[in-house]
Amino acid sequence: MERTFIMIKPDGVQRHLTGEIIHRFERKGFTLVGLKMMQVSRELAETHYSVHQERPFFKGLVDFITSAPVIAMVWEGENVVSAARNLIGQTNPTTADPGSIRGDFGVSIGRNLIHGSDAIETAQTEIALWFVEDELVDWKPVR
Ligand code: CMP
Fold first, then answer.
1. Cα–chain-centroid distance for residue 119?
2. Which of 24, 30, 64, 91 could form a disulfide with 75 if both were Cys (CB 3.0 to 4.6 A apart)?
3. Model confidence, pTM
4. From what superkingdom does this record's organism come (predicted)?
5. CA separation (Å) from 130 to 7, 91, 108, 118, 141?
6. To test the ligand 1 pocket, which listed residue (112, 118, 125) has its Cβ within 8 A of the most ligand atoms?
7. Spacing of C-alpha 60 from chain mean position
8. pLDDT tens, 59-115?
9. Angle CA 12–76–139, to nearest 5
10. DSSP 3-state assignment of 139?
11. Is 52 a catalytic residue?
């Protein structure tokens, strides 16, 4: 079954949106198989966002992600990588669709509440970066 990496960023945690965000994934029918609250190291943030390392916002992004705790999660479900991106909404909350997490609660591109893997391969890389195997629980909900 497909899995994706989802992180509630420091702004989502600080604004007490953790429950709201998890609720949306549960309501949609996805299965939570990993979850931890953590203070992110600079090394982990720089690795996670390495694709953006030449961008002007890179240092600010790393400063922000390491500024306060995040909630790292792995969700499982059919087509969960792209379905999660629909739940999350476009990168810039000012143009994200209402009804999406960023569209409903986000304020700016640098404070867009949540990260979701952009493709199946990226999800596999990000899950391996953020979690060790025994932090993930293999279970199936009774339907
Ligand atoms: P995310 O989808 O987690 O992946 C890369 C992040 O970089 C993105 O969300 C934004 O939070 C951030 N980002 C992208 N563009 C900008 C920008 N122009 N200014 C500040 N942050 C940005």
1. 13
2. 30
3. 0.97
4. Bacteria
5. 10, 21, 25, 16, 24
6. 112
7. 18
8. 999 999 999 999 999 999 999 999 999 999 999 999 999 999 999 999 999 999 999
9. 115
10. coil
11. no
